[in-house]
């Protein structure tokens, strides 16, 4: 017998979906490539690319269905969005998500750090937005 999830348990994932759809609609209406959004303060101060630089353009490209341009703007943001969608689907299905193990957290931090450093050197310029 399948027991329906309580209304409160369904409200949070639906709220997250509504916010994501509103953000996507905003990016669709105001294209980040032609509109002015808040510039990255880290890049403005240092001239270096942070791990999030290009993420708004990447999400705007994804809303328009252009995966190639999205990946060229910020491949890390595209991958992390995919991980987030998988986690959201598991959440909706009622799967309890455990906190990630220490090695996953450390590995993730190493990947983000390596991505940030590499995109700021000539050899990794293909990672820059």
Automatic annotation (TrEMBL):
Position of the signal peptide: 1-22
Record bears the keyword Transmembrane: yes
UniProt keyword list: Membrane, Signal, Transmembrane, Transmembrane helix
Pfam family, one: DUF2752
Transmembrane parts of this sequence: 71-91, 103-121
Protein name, as recorded: DUF2752 domain-containing protein
The species this protein was found in: Rhodococcus sovatensis
């Amino acid at each position: 017998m399948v027991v329906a999830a309580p209304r409160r348990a369904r409200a949070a994932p639906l709220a997250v979906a509504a916010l994501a759809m509103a953000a996507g609609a905003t990016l669709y209406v105001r294209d980040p490539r032609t509109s002015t959004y808040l510039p990255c303060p880290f890049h403005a101060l240092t001239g270096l690319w942070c791990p999030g630089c290009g993420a708004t353009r990447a999400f705007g490209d994804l809303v328009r269905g252009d995966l190639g341009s999205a990946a060229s703007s910020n491949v890390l943001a595209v991958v992390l969005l995919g991980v987030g969608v998988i986690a959201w689907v598991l959440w909706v299905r009622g799967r309890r998500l455990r906190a990630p193990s220490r090695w996953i957290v450390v590995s993730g931090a190493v990947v983000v750090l390596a991505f940030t450093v590499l995109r700021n050197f000539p050899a990794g310029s293909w990672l820059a937005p």
